[in-house]
UniProtKB/TrEMBL annotation:
Protein name: Ricin B-like lectin
PROSITE patterns: RICIN_B_LECTIN (PS50231)
UniProt keyword Acetylation, yes or no: no
Low complexity bias (residue ranges): 157-175
Length: 311
């Protein structure tokens, strides 16, 4: 039976005698019913665990392992010296991108209820873990929404004083192979065209230039629900500096903690303009067209015309 939003909101208030049998599963993958991908963090080699690290979807074979339980509790990163938990932010609402934060047991934004019909909801609230088009997020719990179905795979249940009569559902034998995240390119649409490209190994301060649009990890981005372009497969985002102004060169920088640094938000507004902080827009330097900078937004400026395009 699918839970309604009202039923999920009452989960925390159920009397003790009606509490479901709980069993904690350690070192498991949390797999999306929507497409078979799994919740994951960036590889530790590229991004050590820290507050605000983004949670995204990844091929399950390479994805992060978690600790989760049926019923109410924290969802924590497995096999780590420090405890980090899945976190929905201080005001969970629709389209909040998922992240991790230092574990604070009992904190509302870190207390999830894993239901018998495989939903993961904020305990006492109406928001569910949801796999949207741009990755894991919170969204209002909705019966029949397959974006909100999650399975636990390959786990080792922790000892329990009461045996459960129900097993964690396994993967369907007819599931399609998990697809990769959909990459996007940020393409300049005038002149000889070209795509925003990281010029060198991704790191804080790596310049972003106008380069080839030929398929490459250096010119593909994941645009999250907060309009933050994140270089695909890394924890580095487009960044216009702490005080964007005319002529500020574009670069990569470590992606900021939720809700994101203003200089890392780039949203399309009108006629191809891509706006960041201080009413600055992406701009191609007229006398040096490989240079990507910010400049005061102008709808009449052909140097500021961009598209977010999938491969």
């Amino acid at each position: 039976m699918l839970f309604t939003s009202a039923a999920l909101a009452l989960v925390a208030d159920l009397p003790a005698l009606a509490s479901p049998i709980q069993k904690r599963f350690n070192n498991v993958k949390i797999r999306a019913g929507r497409d078979g991908t799994c919740l994951s963090l960036p590889p530790l080699a590229s991004q050590p665990l820290a507050n605000g690290n983004p949670v995204y979807k990844r091929n399950c074979a390479e994805a992060t392992s978690w600790n989760i339980e049926r019923g109410s509790g924290s969802i924590t990163v497995a096999n780590t010296a420090e405890s980090y938990a899945l976190d929905a932010g201080v005001n969970p609402h629709n389209n909040v991108a998922m992240k991790i934060w230092q574990s604070y047991p009992g904190a509302t934004q870190q207390t999830w209820y894993y239901t018998d019909d495989n939903r993961i909801a904020i305990t006492g609230g109406d928001q569910c873990l949801d796999l949207g088009d741009n990755g894991p997020q919170t969204y209002q719990c909705t019966p029949g929404n397959t974006n909100q179905v999650w399975y636990v795979d390959s786990g080792n249940p922790a000892p329990s004083t009461t045996a459960s009569s129900s097993a964690i559902p396994s993967a369907s034998s007819t599931s399609a192979p998990p697809p990769a995240q959909t990459p996007r390119q940020i393409r300049y649409v005038y002149g000889d065209y070209g795509c925003l490209t990281a010029s060198g190994t991704p790191a804080d301060g790596t310049p972003v230039v106008l380069g080839s649009c030929e398929s490459s990890p250096s010119n593909t981005f994941y645009i999250n629900p907060l309009s933050v372009p994140q270089l695909f497969g890394t924890n580095y985002c487009l960044d216009a500096g702490s005080n964007p102004s005319n002529g500020t060169p574009l670069k990569l920088w470590t992606c900021g903690a939720y809700p994101g640094y203003p200089q890392q938000k780039f949203r399309r507004i009108q006629r191809g303009l891509v706006q960041t902080a201080n009413n600055q827009c992406l701009d191609i330097k007229a006398d040096e067209p490989s240079v990507v900078q910010t400049w005061e937004c102008s709808i009449l400026d052909d140097q500021q015309q961009f598209q977010f395009t999938p491969y």
